[in-house]
Each structure stands twice: as structure tokens, then as C-alpha cells.
């Protein structure tokens, strides 16, 4: 089937859901923010964020632990460290809030622009770049709808209205209903099992689970499903498996580990609960994902294969130049065929 057929007749209603982890931000911004400040993973967060002065005095207690989630859980479990924990949380918040996204189009721009309103990106990331990329593309909405985004562990850029919790946006922005300023959504740490507040988080979880249940395709991008996040992953897994047995499931994992033969089996083990028939597409770059092969038509591109039809010709966007306007113009050419999905 040729690309014109697919581009000119969008038909899919089922969502494509992306689960985004810290590895995605690292892959999208390998050179860091505009000033070269690096994005951390849990294993180097202490060093990247500059938490050593807080950690140093209690290093004997922490032994040689490097993983921030583990360090944080240990500190949190000891009421004596309450004050220290608050200082660490403030430092993390201020570090991530001050990051600035480089001007050139990046993987997050491509990702957001290549999905539609029926689709969603779910993330646990605290860094602001998914939100920032969303905001700088939001002006294209009159022409091309954008996916929904959910920050399940909070985020340094976002806030919500206490009186209208369905309304949220940039932290300290104004609620369009009552003009109160959006309050920050606190960062949730994986071991904080309390997903009960604030209401923004509860709603995000409910909507994310609904979309996962309905999803036709799941892309997991740079998310390692750490042990400390096991409860969260279980919730997502039950949602994904709730509607369908996923016998002909479409799950793709974007992870640099997939280029290493020895590490590929770890990925299979990690995600086996999501794929009962063990059909996993392992790729080491988001550029090889279904989203990028069939921008804004990923589900339409996969349906003919499911029904035994001939594969659909792929039509990746030209990314030879880093100009965001140029990427958006390519998106307009595809989106002009869409009647608003929702
Ligand atoms: Zn309000």
C-alpha cells in the first residue's frame, strides 16, 4: 500500500501510547540543555544535580549506594532526616526548573508532532523538556492536533488549579476559569506510594490507564522500569492487559541496551508482562519507531499488517535540518487530511 493512501485517509481511532522515561530525555538531549547541563539518570543524579554537599555528611550511613532512588528511600525512612530530605527536594526542583531547551528541533518535537489528539505520552520524568517541547508546538494546533501528555510523578514546569483540577498548565500560569494561579505539582518520588494527592496526579493516572487500555500500540522509550517503580509498572500493565489479551500486540521498546546482544534478554525479561506472546520490537533509537515511520498514521500503518495485508510504505519526515519550522511544515502537509479526531 502506498503512503498517499494512508496519509490522505486517516481512519484510526485507537490510541498510540508512549511511555517515556529518563533515558528518553538523555537520548533527546545528549548534549544537555542549552548551556550543556547534563540530564541525569538515577545512577548519576546525585552528581549531576550537585547533591554531594547534602549527601557527604551522611555518607557512612549510605555505604556506597549511588542510585538516587535508593538513597532517597533510605533517608525518607528515617524521620531524623526530614529536614535534609526537604533540602534535597528543593535542590532537585530548582535544578530541573532552571534547564533550558536548545532551539533546534529535537526528538521530543518530532515525537509530539508525529502523534495525534487520540494518542498520549505518559511520563515519570521531572525534567521540563517534554512540556517545553509541547508548549513551543502548541501554536500549530489550529492545523495539527497534538497528543495528550501526562506527568505521573509530577513535573517542575507544571501547575494546576486547586478549584478546577481538570485545568492545568505552566506553573504559575492562570486558570482560564477562575484566574487563580496554577499551583506547582510536587515531584513524586517512586517510593512515595501516595498517589492520592494532588488531584492533578489522580486524574492523570486515571486518564493514562484508560488510554493504555484502549491503546493499539505501545512505545516504551528510555524507561527502565526500576524495582522502585514496580507498583507503578504493575498499574500500567494491568491497564494495558485489561481490554485485550494482546495476542497480536504491538509493543516496541526504544532502549540503547537493545543494540547489545547480551543485554537484549534483560529487556525481554523486564517487559514480558506486557507481551504474553513475546512479540517485542526492540530498537535502539526512536527514529526507527513506528511513530517516526508513519508520522501521525502509526495505527493506520500497522492495521494492514495485522489483517495479513501488504505492508504500508513508510514515510519518515526529513530531519536533515534542525529547524523547527521546517518540521512543522512537513507535519502540516500530513495533518491537512485530518478531520479533528476527537
Ligand atoms: Zn480555576
Unreliable stretches, pLDDT < 50, 5 or more residues? Answer: none
Distinct bound molecules? zinc ion
Percent helix range? 25-40%
Number of helices: 15
The total beta strand count reads 9
Range of strand content:
5-15%
Number of domains: 2
Question: How far is the N terminus from the C terminus?
Answer: 26 Å
Characterize the structure shown:
By secondary structure, this protein is an alpha/beta fold. It has two domains: 3-32 and 105-153 and 188-335; 45-97, no CATH class. 39% of the residues lie in helices and 10% in strands. It has helices at 3-8, 22-28, 45-49, 52-55, 59-62, 68-76, 82-97, 107-113, 129-137, 199-214, 230-242, 261-271, 290-293, 298-306, 324-335, and strands at 16-20, 120-123, 148-151, 158-160, 168-170, 183-184, 217-221, 250-254, 281-283. It is globular and about 65 Å long. The model has no long low-confidence stretch (mean pLDDT 90). It binds zinc ion (ZN). Residues 161, 163-164, 167, 175, 177-178, 180 line the site of zinc ion.
Write the layout of secondary structure elements.
Elements: H1 3-8, E1 16-20, H2 22-28, H3 45-49, H4 52-55, H5 59-62, H6 68-76, H7 82-97, H8 107-113, E2 120-123, H9 129-137, E3 148-151, E4 158-160, E5 168-170, E6 183-184, H10 199-214, E7 217-221, H11 230-242, E8 250-254, H12 261-271, E9 281-283, H13 290-293, H14 298-306, H15 324-335
Parallel strand pairs: 1-2, 1-7, 2-3, 7-8, 8-9
Antiparallel strand pairs: 4-5, 4-6
The structure holds zinc ion (ZN).
Amino acid at each position: 500500500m502506498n503512503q498517499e493512501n494512508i496519509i490522505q485517509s486517516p481512519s484510526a481511532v485507537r490510541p498510540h501510547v508512549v511511555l517515556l522515561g529518563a533515558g528518553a530525555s538523555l537520548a533527546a538531549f545528549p548534549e544537555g540543555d542549552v548551556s550543556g547541563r547534563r540530564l541525569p539518570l538515577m545512577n548519576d543524579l546525585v552528581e549531576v544535580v550537585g547533591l554531594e554537599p547534602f549527601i557527604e555528611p551522611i555518607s557512612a550511613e549510605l555505604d556506597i549506594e549511588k542510585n538516587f532512588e535508593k538513597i532517597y528511600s533510605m533517608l525518607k525512612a528515617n524521620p531524623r532526616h526530614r529536614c535534609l530530605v526537604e533540602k534535597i527536594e528543593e535542590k532537585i526542583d530548582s535544578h530541573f526548573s532552571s534547564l533550558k531547551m536548545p532551539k533546534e528541533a529535537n526528538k521530543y518535537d518530532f515525537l509530539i508532532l508525529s502523534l495525534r489528539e487520540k494518542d498520549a505520552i505518559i511520563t515519570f520524568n521531572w525534567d521540563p523538556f517534554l512540556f517545553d517541547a509541547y508548549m513551543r508546538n502548541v501554536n500549530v494546533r489550529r492545523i495539527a492536533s497534538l497528543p495528550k501528555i501526562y506527568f505521573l510523578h509530577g513535573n517542575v514546569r507544571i501547575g494546576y488549579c486547586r478549584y478546577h483540577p481538570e485545568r492545568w498548565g505552566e506553573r504559575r500560569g492562570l486558570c482560564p476559569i477562575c484566574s487563580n494561579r496554577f499551583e506547582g505539582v510536587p515531584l513524586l518520588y517512586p517510593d512515595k506510594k501516595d498517589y492520592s494527592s494532588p488531584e492533578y496526579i489522580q486524574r492523570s493516572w486515571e486518564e493514562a490507564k484508560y488510554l493504555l487500555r484502549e491503546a493499539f500500540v505501545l512505545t516504551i522509550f528510555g524507561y527502565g522500569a526500576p524495582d522502585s517503580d514496580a507498583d507503578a509498572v504493575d498499574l500500567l500493565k494491568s491497564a494495558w492487559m485489561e481490554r485485550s489479551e494482546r495476542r497480536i500486540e504491538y509493543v516496541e521498546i526504544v532502549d540503547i541496551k537493545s543494540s547489545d546482544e547480551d543485554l537484549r534478554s534483560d529487556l525481554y525479561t523486564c517487559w514480558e508482562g506486557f507481551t504474553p506472546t513475546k512479540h517485542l520490537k526492540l530498537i535502539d533509537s526512536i527514529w526507527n519507531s513506528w511513530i517516526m515511520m508513519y508520522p501521525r498514521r502509526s495505527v493506520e500503518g500497522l492495521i494492514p499488517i495485522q489483517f495479513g495485508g501488504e505492508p504500508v510504505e513508510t514515510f519518515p519526515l526529513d530531519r536533515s535540518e534542525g529547524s523547527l519550522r521546517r518540521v512543522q511544515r512537513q507535519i502540516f502537509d500530513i495533518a491537512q487530511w485530518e478531520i479533528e479526531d476527537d
